[in-house]
Amino acid sequence: MATLTAAIGKTKLHSGWLAARSTEVQLSGTQLTTTHPPTAATAPWMEAAVPGTVLATLVKNKVVPDPFYGLENEAIVDIADSGREYYTFWFFIIFQCKLSGNQHLDLNFRGINYSAEVYLNGHQRVLPKGMFRRHSLDVTDILHPNGQNLLAVLVHPPDHPGTIPPEGGQGGDHEIGKDVATQYVEGWDWIAPIRDRNTGIWDEVSISVTGPVKIIDPHLVSSFFDHYKRVYLHATTELENRSAWIAECSLNIQVTTELEGGVCLVEHLQTQHLSIPPGKRVQYTFPQLFFYKPNLWWPNGMGKQSLYNVHISVDVKGYGESDLWSHLFGFRKIESYIDDATGGRLFKVNGQPIFIRGGNWILSDGLLRLSEKRYRTDIKFHADMNFNMIRCWGGGLAERPDFYHYCDIYGLLVWQEFWITGDVDGRGIPVSNPNGPLDHALFMLCARDTVKLLRNHPSLALWVGGNEQVPPKDINEALKYDLRLHPYFENSAETEKSREDLSLAAMDPSQYLDGTRIYIQGSMWDGFANGKGDFTDGPYEIQYPEDFFKDSFYKYGFNPEVGSVGMPVAATIRATMPPEGWQIPVFKKLSNGYIEEVPNPIWKYHKYIPYSKPDKVHDQILLYGMPKDLDDFCLKAQLVNYIQYRALLEGWTSRMWSKYTGVLIWKTQNPWTGLRGQFYDHLLDQTAGFYGCRSAAEPIHVQLNLATYSIEVVNTTSQELSDVAIEASVWDLEGACPYYKVVEKLSVPAKKVVPIVEMKYPKSKSPKPVYFLLLKLYRMSDYGILSRNFYWLHLPGGDYKLLEPYRQKRIPLKITSKIFIKGSTYEVEMHVHNKSKKPDSKSLTYKNNFITGNYDGDFDIASADPVHSRTEEKREVGIFSRICRHFTKDTDGVKVAEVNGVDSGVALFLHFAVHGWRTDHKEGEDTRILPVHYSDNYFSLAPGEVMPIKISFEVPHGVTPKVTLHGWNYHVRQTTL
To answer: Which domain of life is it from (predicted)?
Structure first.
């Protein structure tokens, strides 16, 4: 193999690793990296998952069963029973690197759990303890002259892996809390124990080549003055001179922005000259860079996520370019304080209050099989739900730069907690150690290093000491001091001041560890829950939908955790459980008339949360009738999921600013194949709750208050809505429209919720026991739809059992599809038309010409363009035929499928799915292509309505994709592609 002289920069070492259990390797690290290197994946060596964990490697090689399938986790030896040596592993790789004169090589580990011994070409280095600290080793002097380098890493598990009590519980016996590591790994009420406690090289490994001077941890800060017209970029970096002479340096900073077509515009280019003594590390602060009205970074739903590329490089006299660093940076200011009106914590971004609607996040995968691709899907899913904040829970990770990168891209604010959680740090059964980890200095070292790793991301909104707990006093005080705000960011009204009003003697904000974001000591303190640390978050179970709207439901201004059900679709159950796990719960009637759901043992192991709460909430699945089998149960569960989470967010939003400042749902996803609190499952298929949230969290939204039956309009944007109208239509099970009302010439102020009109239908004569309500908020000038919301409702004290015979209706549908293919990526435009005969009405909105908007401070709702429906069969398709490849040779780019039906009425709960077909398809194999991004799903269509749906997905090699449509009363399962 040819070895080229290394170029300046970083190279990831993410392939070619081998691993073996240490007790099965009778060689020292010196021998492994000199005379006896492993040469192939032959016993005891196997292909390793790096980044990843020991257990991820064992699963990859099928040495142990998949712990997320059925009850297989019980067949894997727990570290408490095996001892730490069992999960102490060697990891080995050969990498190529040959340096030229005055070059240096660093070997970098961004995360190892929990400690390690590193051997490179026979030389040993010891990596100290701590899961959340970076390690960078200068290995220049021990590289092989021929460029081939042998690296072996012996990784040791956490010092206190703990044991799992028979009753399980939150964090096992809590011993893991004595280490600075993830705390969920001993099990929780939403996950089974992780047997190796996440031992391994779990984050990025890289080598980086520099010249004599190295750039270390630059810090970027923006300060704003004169109502965001004047902006200054502050930058401070550390520089290390590794040479034996004085380094005369030219330090450069360049700021660029990307224009159309990949063209970059240079906004600033500045060069500074400095001298660095031999062997010294210095800190340097650039002169401030001035920007006039830069493009700002906004959270999802408030505007664009504008990002600039900040590029820092250093040239050394007599050498040339020595090191370089770049980062995407967003100009934005986040303020936070306790709101006087609600007592809840209020966030402002760029001076605009933002009503928080988001979710709690644990981590992407319980075995730390983290990837950029998975992170992109995870974060895009959250943006697709119209969320604007993710809380990184304290028992999980300090999330990775890839996670934050996509939060920057998609506009998700991040609440980042440190590694404290009450169950493991002060309470629980048995009562845990209240003093946090044993080594407080190690905790603070990891905390400071985490701040340096993440602080340049605009999405990072606040630091929090812990989950439902305050860190030990000394740690808490140290965090408060280290994360204190710079004077520029202390006063919420400071943008009203001129720059000169602030002390010129104030330290440059980029010289702070952070200085720009608040630190809150715990998740239920200082404006969250009751603000005093009492247990006032939750609840975590099924609720009556109307209760979310009642004033008595939650007392405090900002709920950091409220949760409910999360049953996935039937295909996921079959893919993650053996047949004995396909049995639906037994519905046991209690003496008080309530139903108790008794799940099978596999569902119970996977933490199933029932759809009933005896003594408080009747079973919500049985409202639709007794489920017949797994498919029926899961479909009815999706109906409940949709209603439950839409009502939760609509109920909170109904009292935006008058009672609440925000809510975070517990939780958005599962890091394993769990059965509770999720909007998409571990296989990345969305539940209907996903789309209930997507509807409810629209920046502009029309909704029904389920407690008052008043129609409300929500405007979370900074622009007033004017000249808009609401169309309300009621549809019965016979396809008739017994109620139709239009309210015109409405105005809705910015950042307001306005009750518009009370629904009269249920109070009218002879109301139907089950009916549908369709609400549309539209622009009067062109009937462009701003918001559409569809409800299925029953009379008080009733149920939905009449929907069971409604499944037999044959509703005529017409599905028009158009396919665009680029490489392995497919984009499909669907238009679904309910061709039922419409009753006579004045409706002009049936085509659903949805309006897209930017929703930022400069956005004018009157100038937004409607997305016109394209269902006409004779539309122009020539241009698409020329630039796109299609599924079949004889198509002109448009495919039309029609399903004849004799009935009229609502096509209820239609949902698309994408499947892949191979020639070697096996019976019972899960054929879904996942993930898939849908512009909407689980939707319903009134007679005459047309719905445009966009679908995008990637297709594995050798697979033919097919898009199918299913529905409550649509059983053709039409293949639309």
So the answer is: Eukaryota
Instruction: Tell me if residue 116 falls in helix, strand or coil.
Output: strand
CA dist 662 and 413 (Å) reads 13
Q: For 73, phi and psi rounded to 5 degrees? A: -60, -30
Residue 326: CB partners within 8 Å, gap ≥ 6?
309, 310, 311, 312
Q: What is the pLDDT of residue 568?
A: 98
Q: Distance between CA 198 and CA 195 in Å, rounded? A: 8
Question: At CA 530, angle to CA 524 and CA 532, rounded to 5?
Answer: 65
Q: Per this entry, what is the length of the chain?
A: 977
Q: Residues with Cβ < 8 Å from 77, sequence gap 6 or more?
A: 86, 195
Task: Read off the tokens for 287.
Answer: 């002169």
CB 865 within 8 A of CB 851: yes
Catalytic residues: 468, 561
State pLDDT tens for residues 134-186: 999 999 999 999 999 999 999 999 999 999 988 777 999 999 999 999 999 99
End-to-end CA, the chain:
47
Q: Which residue has the tokens 């529905």?
A: 967
Cα distances (angstroms) measured from residue 592 to each of 587, 589, 618, 800: 14, 8, 11, 22
CA-CA distance, 581 to 574, in Å (whole number)? 8
Q: What tokens appear for 71 in the block?
A: 């009850």
Instruction: Taking each helix axis as running N to C, give the angle between helix 688-696 and helix 630-653, from 0 to 180 degrees, rounded to the nearest 10.
Output: 20
Q: What pLDDT sits at residue 740?
A: 94
- Please give the Cα distance from 719 to 782 (Å, whole number): 19
Residues 395, 397, 401: CA angle, nearest 5 degrees: 160
- Give the pair of three-digit tokens for residue 690: 């996903």
Report the C-alpha gap between 182 and 397 in whole angstroms: 6
Sign, CA torsion 12/17/22/25:
negative
Helix H or strand E segment including 563: strand 558-563
What number of other Cβ atoms are within 10 A of residue 694's Cβ?
24
Residue 312: half-sphere exposure toward Cβ, Cα within 13 Å: 24
- Count other C-beta atoms under 10 Å from residue 888's C-beta: 8
Q: What residues contact 2, with CB distance under 8 A and at least 6 apart?
A: none
**Helix 372-384 crosses helix 688-696 at what angle (to 10 degrees)?**
50
Confidence at residue 575, expressed as pLDDT on a 0 to 100 scale: 98
Least Cα distance to 383 among 298, 311, 456, 485 occurs for 298
> Per the structure block, which two tokens stand in for 397?
């990770």
Q: Burial level of 81, CB count in 10 A (0-12/13-18/19+)?
A: exposed
**Predicted local confidence at residue 504, as pLDDT:** 44
Measured CA to CA, the distance from residue 307 to residue 300 in angstroms comes to 14
CB-count exposure of residue 396 (10 Å: 0-12, 13-18, 19+) = buried
* Class of residue 9 by CB neighbours under 10 A (exposed 0-12, middle 13-18, buried 19+): middle
Tokens of 671: 């890091």
Query: CA 205 to CA 761: how far, in whole Å?
Result: 63
Residue 842 — pLDDT band, cuts 50, 70, 90? Answer: low
Distance between CA 172 and CA 78 in Å, rounded?
12
Give CA torsion, residues 503, 508, 514, 519, to 10 deg. Answer: 0
Helix (H) or strand (E) run with residue 304 in it: none
What token pair was written down for 629?
């089998």
CA 554 vs CA 557, 664, 678: distances in Å? 8, 13, 21
How far is Cα 69 from Cα 908, in angstroms, rounded to an integer? Answer: 33
CA distance linking residue 936 with residue 912, whole number of Å: 9
Report the amino acid identity of residue 27: L
The radius of gyration of the chain's CA atoms, rounded to the nearest angstrom, is: 29
Q: DSSP states of 189-240 as a string?
A: TTB---TTTT-B--S-EEEEEE-SEEEEEEEEEEEEETTTTEEEEEEEEEEE
- 263, pLDDT greater than 90: no
